[in-house]
Amino acid sequence: MQVTLFTPDSSYEQFRDVWEARIAMYSELLAPHGITLKPVAWPNARPNHPAWAQLAWGYHLQPARWETLLAAWPADVPLLNPPGLLRWNSDKRYLDDLDAAGVPVVPTRFVGLANEAELAAARAEFGVDELVVKPRISASASYTTRVGPADRAPNLADAMIQPFMPSVQDQGELSIFFFGGTPAHAVRKVAAPGDFRVQREYGGAFTLVEPNEEELAVARAAIAAAPEPPFYARVDLVPDSEGRPRLMELELIEPDLYLDLAPDRGASFAALLAQRLKG
Q: Cα separations (Å) of 56 from 12, 118, 132?
């Protein structure tokens, strides 16, 4: 059996070594199950391959094209996470839906343009001086900016504004992974000194940890509030000023599942994926 993995197109050079290493890892994990991995640049994807995954990089660089692909995806050609769920998760306005469902999310303002007036309004609403501004459609901290009280507004279009969470620098973010609706493993991500971005590409330190019951409860609530059950999910949490976990992001597209840090190095995920594909 062959499974197809969405990759960036040839123009996406950022972190190429990262996603190519992940492709090699998935290939090695699936080989014992008789499954070969076929990488396909998602802008060229056609639903006529033998089987489909949907783990995808680079979609945020061509959001209109990504939206068109998912909107036209045939209902009888399954993706690991359904196309409607991917469309919902592509725009971080989904945080409003989760907030409305009672999930404790990091406070967020969505604005047409992150200018001085919008930043001033955000500081007043959140009661903080420091903010984080990023695109509504983004990945890998792309165009994400930390804005202090003396910094100029980034004037970023279609943006989201959040309070800077100081805990990210010492306690970091917690990523809890769910496969088939079941918690699998969790990773603590702490930014490099002087930075606030926790991704490994920016020097973030990753450590395997055990989430507590409150963290698991928030993660489960976020997944339960999604429009459809995901096959796989990454739930990013960060402590607020009172130490309570808040949802930073519910990631249903990003294919880096940190399987290299999982206790079984991804064997159970590969087995579950093989079962899903063969079923």
A: 12, 32, 25
> Residues with catalytic annotation?
197, 234, 251
Tokens, residue 225? 């509030």
Separation between Cα atoms, residue 83 and residue 92, nearest integer Å: 16
How far apart (Å, rounded) are the C-alpha atoms in residues 84 and 81? 8
Alpha-carbon distance of 88 to 257, in angstroms, equals 20
Helices (H), the chain: 16-30, 63-71, 83-90, 94-100, 116-126, 167-170, 213-224, 267-278
- What digits encode the pLDDT tens for the residues 16-31? 777 788 889 889 999 9
Q: What pTM was computed for the model?
A: 0.90
- Euclidean distance between CA atoms 52 and 142, whole angstroms: 27
Mean pLDDT over residues 124-131, rounded?
96
Question: How far is Cα 250 from Cα 236, in angstroms, rounded to an integer?
Answer: 6
CA dist., res. 247 & res. 249, Å (int): 6
Distance (Å) of CA 118 to CA 86, 115, 135, 159: 29, 5, 14, 10
Residue 50: both structure tokens together = 């033998």
**Locus of tokens 């998602």:** 42
Beta strand ranges found along the chain (DSSP E): 2-7, 36-41, 109-114, 131-135, 145-147, 156-163, 173-179, 182-190, 205-209, 232-239, 245-251
